[in-house]
Structure formats: structure tokens, C-alpha cells
Amino acid sequence: MTIKHLKSVLCAVTLLASAPVAAEGVKLCHIANAGFLVEGEETAVLFDAARVTDEYDGEYGLPSAGLMADLTLGKGAFEKVKLAFVSHKHNDHFDAGATLAHLRADADVTYLMPPEAFEMLKQAGLTEAEEARAMAVLPPWEGGPLSYDIAGVKVKAYRVDHGPNRPQNIGFHVTVDGVSFFHTGDINASGESLRKAGLGNTPVDVMLLAFWYGLNNPQQSKTITDMWQIGTVVPMHLAPGERGWMNQYGGRDQFLAWIHGQWPGSVQLTDEMACHTFEAK
User: Fold this and answer.
1) Whole-prediction pTM value?
2) Is 101 helix (H, G, I), strand (E, B) or coil?
3) pLDDT band of 11, cuts 50, 70, 90
4) CA atoms within 13 A on the CB side of 232
5) What does DSSP say about strands 179-183 and 81-85: parallel, antiparallel, or unpaired?
6) Rounded to an integer, what distance in angstroms lies between the CA atom of residue 242 and that of residue 227?
7) Residues forming beta bridges with residue 112, ordered by sequence position
8) How many C-beta atoms lie closer than 10 Å to residue 125's C-beta?
9) Of the candidates 202, 204, 214, which has an alpha carbon nearest to the alpha carbon of residue 260?
């Protein structure tokens, strides 16, 4: 190889190394139960993620200690996190102490949550200065959604009924790098209530759907297809490991197969930090 040829090769390699890397897509990673990380090129968001206490005797999955250490500090997979969402105050979705620790350790993160969860956060020790990064939001039963644009992330918050005598529950519709995600929280809503809340043929690329909603219930299945135009369903809120009640379906594997059979093309994310990448738009 001549010196002139070698210089040409080195120049080409330098140009390739300095060229911008194309975005690989928007990554969705399961944390535990209904907790997820959505990671875009420059920004990431969390749903129902920060949890260290368990009030349900192991019925619902908890993040591992190592994952929570990284999440709290905004390290590793969580270094891009700018927004975190809480659907409702139940302990399998929200932990006031873990949320407060996250807010205090990661100055880049802002939380959105229902007022009931916010009050629990205040009881845990949230200061007035910290309230600037913990927003209590409550969409109306009629005439929603509430809309936000925070850290370059477009957010729509809808009131989604959890059921009679249940806490305030918010469905968050979030768009990262052009890919939209809808997290239902614990949904037990009628089509009429969702329509009044502002939904109806609402396009969503990825639906994070509580697994029970629509199963063996034609009316709820119709509600889903009436309220959303869904690209991909990701069933959530699945118990970790085998449970006795799964025996009626032939065990956990058969139960999961049955759930995903309800939604052709659905994506299964049940293990901690199991991920799927959706093409950025």
C-alpha cells in the first residue's frame, strides 16, 4: 500500500467515525409489574417505575436492588431520564419513599402524578423547593386531556377509571422521537367514560395495557378498538413467576400465550429489563 493510498484510507475512516450515528429507534424496557422505561435518542421517560417496598406479599414484581440503585441516581440505562409518570397511588405502581429518593438524587427528573399520590409524596417529606419537579395533575372526567410539553416530550394525560371506590388513575399518552406510548394504569373503564375523557380512535403506536382488560370480555375488547387505533399491544401488570391461579390456564407459559393470543402481533416483556425497539419516526 502506498503512502498516498494509506492517507486516503485513514481519511475515510476518520470521516466515518465522525459521522453522526443514525438513531436506532425508541427502546421500551420492562422494569417490574407495570413499570417501564422508554428510551429515545436524547431523552427517556419512566412509567410506574420507582418502587422498593412491597405491600402485597410478593404478588407483584419489584425492581431489583441493583436496578433501583441505577434508576435512583440516573445512571446506566437511566441516564437520559427526564420525565417520570405515576398512574395512581397503589403500592404496586407507586412508592412515595423511592420516588422522593429519585427526585433528590437525580436533579434532571420531573414527576407527574395524581393528587392522591402527590399528597403521599408530601407526607414522605417532599419540600416546597422539590415541588417544582413533582407535578400533581388530574385530568377531568369530561373534556380532557390535559396536554404538556416537557423536556421535548409531548404528554397528554387522560382520566382513566380504575373502578368503583378506587383511586384516581391517569392514562398517560407520551410521544418520544415520534413514537407514541399509552400507559393505561389500572384500567376498568367503560367506553362512555373514556370517550367523555377525550379518547376516541386515538392513534397510539404502543399500548401498555393492563393484561386483564378485554380478556374474555367482548364489550371491553370493543372499547379498546373504539377508543384507540393501536399499532402494538404490550400486556402489563403480570405477576412474576408461577401463581396457583394460573393452573386453570395450564400454567404460566400457557397463560402468557393465551394473553398474547388475544392481541396478534403483541410484544411480550415480562423479565426485568427485557426490551423491544420500535422504529423512530
Assistant:
1) 0.91
2) helix
3) very low
4) 16
5) unpaired
6) 33
7) 85, 135
8) 11
9) 214
153: amino acid identity, one letter:
V
Instruction: Say how many Å lie between the first and final Cα of the chain, rounded.
Output: 43
8 Å CB contact between 207 and 228: yes
HSE value, Cβ hemisphere, 13 Å, CA-based, for 25: 9
Cell readout for 119 is: 399528597
Distance CA 227, CA 168 (A): 20
Place of cell 421500551: 28
CA-only gyration radius of the chain, Å: 21
For residue 5, give every residue at least 6 positions away whose Cβ sits within 8 Å of its Cβ, in sequence order, or none: none
Q: How confident is the model at residue 24 (pLDDT cuts 50, 70, 90)?
A: confident
Q: What is the pLDDT of residues 51-107, one digit of tens each?
A: 999 999 989 999 999 999 999 999 999 999 999 999 999 999 999 999 999 999 999
